[in-house]
Amino acid sequence: MPIDPDSYEPLYRQVAGDLRQRITSGALSPGQRLPAEPDLAHEYGVGIDALRDALAVLRSEGLVRTVSREGSYVREEVEPAIVRIEGSARIRVRLPTLQERKRLRLAEGMPVLVVNDGEGTRLLSAYDTEIEIS
Question: Which pTM does this prediction carry?
Answer without folding.
Answer: 0.68
